[in-house]
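Here comes a specimen:
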Amino acid sequence: MILVLIALLSAMQAPQPPQGTPGGIEGTVCEVLTCVPISGARITVSVIGSPANRRTAVTNIGGTFRFLQLQPGRYGLRLEADDYTA
């Protein structure tokens, strides 16, 4: 069993955009101990309280993903990757 780490980059470091301005979430999915990138991981983002309104991205060979044009709000992330557990 290998644990997985998600590093949320710009969403955690950027200042909050003005209300009504779309933003984004991007990051890297990697193994916890070695931080070897995990390609092909599926990341789903949805507005908390509205799971029907969701979007999915797949990590590239470097383990990175990006969601653009997200409206201001609170979001939950879900990660799935073959042969990994979160």
In short: The helical segments are 10-13.
